[in-house]
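Allow me, if you will, to draw on your knowledge of protein folds for a short while. I have a record of one protein: its chain in single-letter code and its fold written as discrete structure tokens. Could you please explain, in whatever detail you think fit, how the structure tokens follow from the sequence? The record follows directly beneath this note:
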Amino acid sequence: MTDHELVRQLRVQVADRLNEQRRRDQVNGYPAMTVEDEREFARSLIVQVLEDHARTEIASGRTPASSDDEAALATAVHSALFGVGRLQPLIDDPEVENIDINGCDQVFVQYGDGREVVHPPVAESDEELVDLIQVLASHAGLSSRPFDSANPQLDLRLPDGSRLSAVMGVCARPSVSVRKARMGKVFLTDLVANGTMTPEIAEFLRAAVTARKNLMIAGATNAGKTTLLRALANEIPPVERLVTVERALEVGLGEFPDLHPNVVSFEERLPNSEGVGGVSMSDLVRRSLRMNPSRVIVGEVLGDEIVTMLNAMSQGNDGSLSTIHANSSMEVFNRISTYAIQSRERLPIQATHMLIAGSLDFVVFMRKRNEYSQGGGMVRIVESIREVTGIDERVLSGEVFAPGPDGRAVPHAPMQAIAELQEAGYRPLVHGQWA
């Protein structure tokens, strides 16, 4: 069993030596070490610190750690410096789906089969928990992100692709939520295999991407929107240039050059302590249009970037993808209108609906169900697909795929874009047979 107090002490010693080396490099005019260089240098420092610790133990008449225990200590210290400390085993566990932390000693872990269990503390104190998050924020993403009393909110992507959200100061104790990245390189065939959608829905979505239809993926938190976004993006031919815009990098299309060799990933940058240097999502969406994109992919719409994005979709950037929080496919239009009226443009509802009708083609709605009590697990399904067909004061749309007997979307109504989709390879089912 790992001695967490010893890990903490050793981590402090290694961090002190690492900081001293950084200071020496700066004084001597040497370039700063890269993150990877620091990681490797820290490994050598950990070996030195563990050797010093073993000599101290022997001098005090105690038995030093065995080679296996020393290796475990080295891993724990490195995780405390560059990983997620005591969270690392949970991050590494493929069965873990979500981790919720309400203070260092209130840890709730949700597994893929729907179970939720209480986990031992992940830090000795709330202060140590905040320190851990600050270390992560300093080297995750494209730039260092502050997490302190002046910046009490943090969103970032962990090295394995998991999403971390943390808050402090606005709640009694620091609160952290980690949503594990369940699937990295994912395809529509994988989502058919795990029951997220039927083969016909996969056929339809593949054709919609090929036909360069603009798609908005909607659903509640943790409904599988980003996973579906990745699967749809992986249907885009590798010859296309993609620009992704996100608050915190998580889509990760650039990680698979065999699928997407030409990707530019934009990440929102928060302002510094003086309130300058920030680059908003809206700014990045606008900038993306000047980067010669074949398609623009916005990871998650949460604010006034919606107006810029819809404008981009309506001005020839066909085939764009995005996600949004909503409780139904129909509610998406009201959610977009709410964001638009709060934007810098203060777009009125009528104008927003005209913009939606001229830009969006389909809304794909996903739902999450916990079937653990029925002997199942956490199930995510494509429940509904709505086609945007026009405007008559309000957005006109039709639910072309509606929930079937098991909740998964099945054909429900004719669609206007059927000819374009068939040209792109869509074969609708007729009486249970492919057309």
Summary: The chain is about 35% helix and 25% strand. The radius of gyration is 25 Å. The chain has a mean pLDDT of 86.
